[in-house]
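Input chain follows. Return structure tokens only.
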Amino acid sequence: MKKPKIVVVGSINIDLVVKSYKFPLPGETVIGNAMQTFPGGKGANQAVAASRLGADVQMVGCVGDDVFGEDLIGNLKTNRVGTDFVRKIKDKSSGIAMIIVSENGQNSIVLAPGANMMVNKELVEKAENVIKNSDALIVQFEIPLDVVFYTIDMAKTFKKKIFLNPAPAQKIPDAILKKVDYIIPNETEATIITGIQVKDLNTAQRAASNLINRGSKSVILTLGENGCLLVSEKEMIHLSAFSINVVDTTSAGDAFVSAFAVGILRNFTEKRAAEYANIAGALASTKLGAQSSLPTRKDIEMFLKNI
């Protein structure tokens, strides 16, 4: 089977993770467990996730001129992600995410973008041929927004499939929504983008319909333990989540995005791709850390055999 070719333009971070029995209130100090470091960043997570699922992946992004930067590039290479367009920025620190993980596996994150904010149009232009020869583009919002929109325009010119994970959420012009093939937000992101408070399936349907009415072709709204909602002009399908022992949900959304993209590029129906993505997201929630928890294609196949 031919490997899907994917270019990911986005963030590359180091995650500093502490497990705690609760999230601290304002002014409160909470004693947590030992801090652990993991490679992360939504862009890098999605690149590694797609690679582990059998795609040929190229990463476009920036790291700092520090020890973290070296480690992050090395980790991408270890996971068979191309790094020809990953730049090390002098006198800048690598992106750092401070993550608190609660007892039930939920997380709270503060991000210091660092070198991620140095991803620019010139770097994307250097990767133009790679994008032109790919099957699809995956982008998020942890790098400058104008660069994301520029990259989407380029991929659209080359008629590539475009997957947008609008995280962290920001307002999106309708003109951009019309160029994206698949937009994949979670409940919080959908709330910010549409202005509709997503708190149950009914409001999720309203938010997804809002995006469709504004020009989106397909919306896949992830709902955590409530699964996901797949919406297009033709259909609206709710898929339940799988019952798992949740350890850390940090990279569940990233695993979902990449698995959905890989599924679509393997000519799965949208429903089947969303089911595949649901499994990837569930498996990613069973381990601590971002990239360390991302499942392989074999992991998903084993899961399918046992359900």
